[in-house]
Amino acid sequence: SCSAVTEMVAGALERSRADIALAVSGVAGPDGGTADKPVGTVYLAWAPRGGSTRVVRQHFDGDREAVRLATVAAALQGVLDVCADRG
Questions:
Q1: How far apart are CA 11 and CA 85, in angstroms?
Q2: Which strands sit side by side in the sheet containing 41-48, from one edge to the other?
Q3: What are the φ and ψ backbone dihedral angles of 86, each rounded to 5 degrees?
Q4: How far apart (Å, rounded) are the C-alpha atoms in residues 57 and 6?
Q5: For site-directed labelling of 35, which of 23, 51, 83, 84 has its Cα 20 to 30 A away?
Q6: Cβ pair 64, 31 in contact under 8 A
Q7: Could you read off the pLDDT tens digit of each residue along the chain, which spans 87 residues?
Q8: In the chain, what's the furthest Cα-to-Cα distance?
Q9: Domains in the chain, ordered, with CATH?
């Protein structure tokens, strides 16, 4: 959920010396989806140390592997975006 990934990035920054934290949670499938959170629903959060947390909810189509690969790609792109925003 949105609140889960927000807490996860905050905790990662509190417990590490990292400059950027990333968190992911979701339903990769093939089971576990609900009407509210169907399979393929993923929450991602990024937070730079001393900056604002960015959270997005995305939906990826495909089987479990496709959802996982799309999630990794989105997560890494988000890290690049945070780095670019910081200059």
A1: 22
A2: 20-26, 41-48, 54-59
A3: -80, -15
A4: 12
A5: 23
A6: no
A7: 999 999 999 999 999 999 999 999 999 988 988 899 999 999 999 999 999 999 999 999 999 999 999 999 999 999 999 999 887
A8: 41
A9: 2-86 (3.90.950.20)
**In the structure encoding, which two tokens stand for residue 78, read together?**
């988000």
Residue reference for tokens 């609140």: 3
Total-model pTM? 0.91
Sequence-ordered list of residues with C-beta below 8 angstroms from that of 82, at least 6 positions apart, any chain:
20, 46, 48, 51, 54
Per DSSP, the residues of 8-23 read HHHHHHHTS--SEEEE
The tokens describing 57, both together, are 């909810």
DSSP 33-50: --SSS-TTEEEEEEEETT
42 touches 17 (CB < 8 A): no
